[in-house]
Write a structure and sequence with these properties.
By secondary structure, this protein is an alpha+beta fold. It folds into three domains: 120 residues, Potassium Channel Kv1.1, Chain A, CATH 3.30.710; 113 residues, Serine Threonine Protein Phosphatase 5, Tetratricopeptide repeat, CATH 1.25.40; 142 residues, Apoptosis, Tumor Necrosis Factor Receptor Associated Protein 2, Chain A. The chain is 40% helix and 19% strand. Helix 2 packs across helix 4, helix 5 packs across helix 6 and helix 11 runs antiparallel to helix 12. The longest helix is centred in the first third of the chain and has 19 residues. The chain is flat and about 85 Å long. The N terminus and C terminus are likely disordered.
């Protein structure tokens, strides 16, 4: 810095000259390779010395050669200070915020006040400005995103948002998806917020068993409890996890009452409801707040659904199942080498969640085909005795779920079918996609439409196998709603 002032030149001019000389030096390093090239007439070659230039820029930052500005990063509420020798030209080219600061600041020292988490990664952030690459850990994503947003480094900000979206399943000591969700809400990043919420909803069973569950905010707990697409073992599992969360966080009474009223007691078998009434300290304390829901749940379990539907709206949330993984509501299905041929599979579910239907079973047939032939093509095979082809290389994966038999007891009940596709991400098995069937159809029209099952490394496969879980959710129909 002193050298540039003694020469009487502008620091910007000197820094620019220095960077240009660095560039041509990096080109010269790779120049010897040109002599070995047989250059053909009228041909063009692309000379790429990017890595050499990046190395030179990294050295420039590390050694501080030709530095014309000192960054003093002060950690808020502490005496900790980090010093970085930097170059005005680089900072200004990468950030309009830095450019404005430097134009309005005549001193050679720029003082920046940052929170502890941001100060800890500030050197990484500055290196990105020089080199254009950065290594990120899960716990560094938010502070780096804060710095990128604060200093308007939009490329880094966008890249970090993508990183967080793609690393929701990464392992971390205390969990990170909840923190990322809360941060996304804070900054108004709706896409990241929705991706975090979907991940939590689809992998709720594992979240409930993790340390992350205890750190969930009141608003997030209430948001999750309202959703019907939660994937978990049972409603009882959700109640017990909620009880643990309330015990750990001690929220206000109004929050507890709202959370308890969001539990779908009609989905909990009566024997467990009786036990909760006597053995759950939370239920004993707040019994009056949910007594009407418990009474309705016991009525639901004791009466015929058709009889109940004459007087109550059985389409309300208390009677609507979530995506339960217990054997009463579906079955896992592992398909080895899914591109090989068609597969079929049978399983049973409970007719309905009502205690009146606990002993009644519905048998389901599932058919999977990796390359299903469209109906328009199949219809051309009409010759007598001709085999009807079901697969073709031009087809796409299909799955069909149908009841094996029909019964008069099905009256008043419709079945919503859900196919859950598992995948391995960052070494962890998580829900990759959820396909819902319309109640009146037998298949999901977009099933694996973007999946390339031919690739062994397909993100939809685990060890070359397709891991599915089929869930059948019975929904009762309201016949007559009683007048109030």
């Amino acid at each position: 810095m002193a050298r540039s002032c003694e020469q009487g030149g502008s620091p910007w001019v000197y820094a620019g000259t220095l960077l240009i000389s660095l560039y041509f030096h990096s080109v010269a390093v790779g120049g010897a390779a040109l002599k070995q090239e047989a250059v053909l007439e009228n041909s063009q070659y692309v000379l790429n010395h990017t890595m050499t230039l990046v190395q030179r820029m990294d050295s420039l930052l590390t050694l501080g050669n030709g530095s014309d500005v000192t960054l003093r990063i002060q950690t808020i509420s502490t005496d900790e200070v980090k010093v970085i020798q930097a170059h005005t030209l680089v900072l200004s080219l990468q950030s309009d915020v830095f450019e404005e600061m430097l134009l309005n600041h005549n001193a050679s020292v720029l003082v920046l006040r940052e929170t502890a988490d941001c100060a800890a990664v500030f050197d990484k952030f500055v290196r990105y400005l020089y080199c254009g690459d950065i290594s990120v850990r899960v716990d560094q994503a938010i502070p780096l995103h804060k710095l990128a947003s604060k200093y308007h480094v939009w490329g880094l900000q966008h890249g970090l948002t993508q990183y967080m979206t793609q690393h929701l399943s990464s392992d971390s000591p205390t969990g990170h998806v909840v923190c990322w969700y809360q941060y996304a809400v804070q900054i108004g990043d709706l896409a990241l917020r929705d991706n975090c919420l979907q991940y939590l909803s689809w992998n709720l069973s594992s979240v409930l068993q993790s340390a992350e569950w205890g750190s969930i905010s009141e608003d997030l707990v209430l948001s999750l409890l309202q959703r019907s697409d939660l994937i978990l073992q049972s409603e009882l599992e959700l109640y017990e996890a909620l009880e643990a969360w309330i015990s750990q966080n001690q929220p206000a009474s109004l929050t507890v009452e709202s959370a308890l009223r969001a539990i779908r007691y009609g989905m909990i078998p009566p024997q467990h409801l009786f036990r909760l009434q006597k053995q759950s300290g939370l239920m004993v304390k707040y019994y009056e707040s949910v007594r009407d829901l418990l009474y309705l749940a016991f009525q639901f379990h004791s009466a015929s659904p058709i009889q109940l539907a004459k007087f109550f709206d059985v389409n309300c949330s208390i009677f609507t199942p979530r995506n339960y993984l217990s054997s009463s509501w579906g079955s896992p299905w592992i398909i080895n080498n899914p591109t090989r041929d068609d597969r079929s599979f049978s399983f049973q579910t409970q007719l309905g969640p009502s205690g009146h239907d606990t002993t009644k079973r519905v048998t389901w047939n599932a058919l999977f085909s990796p390359r299903w032939l469209p109906l328009s093509v199949r219809s051309t095979y009409t010759e007598v005795g001709a085999m009807l082809p079901t697969r073709t290389d031009g087809g796409r994966p299909r799955i069909i779920v149908t009841p094996a038999t029909s019964s008069p007891e099905f009256a008043g009940v419709s079945f919503q079918k859900t196919v859950i596709v598992m995948a391995k991400q960052q070494g962890k098995v998580v829900v990759r996609h959820v396909y819902n069937f319309h109640q009146s159809t037998e298949e999901a029209g977009d099933f694996l439409v973007d999946a390339d099952l031919q690739k062994r490394a397909s993100e939809y496969l685990i060890d070359s196998s397709l891991y599915l879980h089929i869930v059948v959710k019975p929904l009762y129909h309201t016949l007559i709603v009683a007048r109030k």
